[in-house]
Amino acid sequence: MAAKPHFYITTAISYPNGAPHIGHAYELIATDAIARFKRLDGFDVFFLTGTDEHGQKMLQTAAKEGVTARELADRNAAVFRRMATALNASNDDFIRTTEERHHRTCQEIWQRMQDKGDIYLAKYSGWYSVRDEAYYAESETTVGGDGVRRGPTGTPVEWVEEESYFFRLSAYQDRLLALYESQPDFISPEERRNEIVSFVKGGLKDLSVSRTAFDWGIPVPGDPKHVMYVWVDALTNYVTATGYPHETPRSHYWPADVHIIGKDIVRFHAVYWPAFLMSADWPLPKRVFGHGFLFNRGEKMSKSVGNVIDPFTLADHYGVDQLRYFFLREVPFGQDGNYSHEAIVNRINADLANDLGNLAQRSLSMIAKNLDGVVPAPGAFTQADSAILASAYALPEKAREAMKNLALHHVLAEIWRVVGDANRYFASEEPWVKRKSDPERFATILYVTAETLRAVGIMARPVIPGAASALLDLLGVAPESRGFAQVGEGDRIAPGAKLPGPAPIFPRYVEPE
Ligand code: ME8
Predict the structure, then answer these.
(1) Whole-angstrom Cα distance, residue 441 to residue 467?
(2) 3-class secondary structure per residue, 440-482
(3) Whom does it interact with, and what assembly results (predicted)?
(4) What is the dihedral sign for C-alpha 150, 152, 158, 161?
């Protein structure tokens, strides 16, 4: 048997300077859905997430809370890990940048960049935003009415002057532009790509890549009074987790197939990261995808506005599958999105409880009540039967097409189009009438409906893994027959199988008293 093709996907690693918020949850859910999709489509997947624990922001927050940076990182990294479990994420590893394995890889990439002649010592003076952990040119900053100078993202900047190692980023401008040119989907969506191309065309300055003002970081090889700039350290996590360049059970996963990140950190992933890798002569990731931001009713979440909603509370309140479905269906992947109680409830009740849940419940109850819970043998298919089955069987191809652009919302729209068609089919075939008047037709309609639900259940697994598995259990689909390759005629539900009996998969959301 030929080895499965491999697929390596990552989220950004989060700053554990606080508990996770819904933006972190969103990124994890979307990345998880893509990872699950690829596994079900026959790929050998490695899915990585984790925490970015060094840097000045961590130190400052720790100082404010009266704990050490290590204590702050330990406390919150545990919460990020718990969130991955709570959201039913299928990550294969969880990396923390304070781990020993990561120190080694960081020192190795640094050494390689230095051996290349791309690292030199000089004096840095310029503007730094601790909140963004980013350096800004003076021309990118503005002084507001409050007298505070801010960077392009609106965060305050401070003047920094210290001895620093620099990375010769300026030498990589042409190679980066050639990369964007030859691999048009290296950065997507399109608008993010355009922003980056014009940023790089504007000229690149060498990048300060070490700090001496504090020691919460990875020491620079041979000069330990410097620690590496937190972004050199952070980006390198993606390599660390594979063990590359050393031969390990995972080293074949590097280079990554895609980094899923938010739109605010595309510059780090699409400019600095490939330049570091080019310098180190390590292969480049194939793709960087910058998703949009989530807003609570159009407002930016912030602790001071008091609208930060904890993902644990949301998942408890609405259900994990419900939350996953909502975010991935409601927000076109790559664009900004909003969430509100009403919008979530609307999706739960219309798409999940009504369209999918009711159809499953009604058809499976009829099989239970009238056919002793045994899958009937279908008669000859009518045109209507063949049409709905054909659209169900076309789902893997349609979904793969949409996934070329990581358009998760389109994948879901295709699946729910079939759910909608199946509901119309069921309503117009009127099995409740045929039960007495035409028992053979009754059996065929229920068979076709169950078979359509089987295809839908398999295809929905990446997004609603819990409920989709429950549905496939109710349909008697064997656990090893739940991949995309089984969506088709060859793996049809076997007539004669005894089903476990109907059970609700998606209850309606009812407002608490
Ligand atoms: O940026 N909506 O960490 P982070 C959607 N440690 N996504 C959001 C969001 C929102 N409201 N707010 C943040 C960092 N994100 C670095 C990354 S990677 C080598 C280092 C996204 O905790 C954000 O865009 O600030 C990023 O992809 C991720 O959450 C972690 O953000």
Answers:
(1) 29
(2) HHHHHHHHHHHHHHHHHHHHHCCCCHHHHHHHHHHCCCCHHHC
(3) Monomer.
(4) negative
Does residue 377 sit in the same domain as residue 487? yes
- What's the confidence (pLDDT) of residue 307? 59
Report the pLDDT averaged over residues 412-417. 98
Ligand 1 atom nearest to CA at 14: 22
* The pLDDT value given to residue 306: 58
Q: ipTM of the predicted structure?
A: 0.99
Whether 304 maps to a domain, the answer reads no
Nearest to 313 by CA among 278, 346, 341, 276: 341
Ligand 1 pocket list (CB less than 6 A)? 12-15, 23-24, 26-27, 52, 234-235, 261-262, 264-265, 293-294, 301
CATH number for the domain harbouring residue 241: 3.40.50.620
Which pLDDT value is given to residue 296? 80
Look-up: residue for tokens 């709570």?
A: 86
Strands annotated E in 263-369: 288-291, 294-296, 337-339
Determine the residue type at 435. Answer: R
Same domain, 358 and 435: yes
Parent domain of 255: 6-108+230-291
The pTM for the full model equals: 0.97
Q: Quick one: which of 160, 170, 151, 149 has its CA closest to 126?
A: 160
Exposed e or buried b for every residue in 500-513, given b needs 16+ CB within 10 A? eebeebbeebeeee
Closest-lying ligand 1 atom to the alpha carbon of residue 273: 19
Domain total in the chain? 3
The pLDDT tens digits for 332-389 are 999 999 999 999 999 999 999 999 999 999 999 999 999 999 999 999 999 999 999 9
Please state, in angstroms and rounded to a whole number, the distance separating the CA atoms of residues 334 and 407: 8
11 alpha carbon to ligand 1 midpoint, in Å? 9
- Choose one of 291, 307, 322: the last residue of a domain: 291
- 234, 93: one domain: yes
Atom of ligand 1 nearest to the CA of 12: 18
What CA–CA distances, in Å, run from 389 to 304, 333, 445, 489?
Answer: 52, 28, 11, 9
**Backbone dihedral angles phi then psi of residue 127, each to the nearest 5 degrees:** -95, 140
Write down the pLDDT at residue 513: 80
Ligand 1 pocket: which of 11, 13, 17, 27 to mutate (most atoms within 8 A of CB): 27
- Average pLDDT of the chain to the nearest whole number: 96
Of 184, 211, 238, the last residue of a domain is 211
The alpha carbon of 79 is separated from its chain's Cα centroid by a whole number of angstroms, namely 18
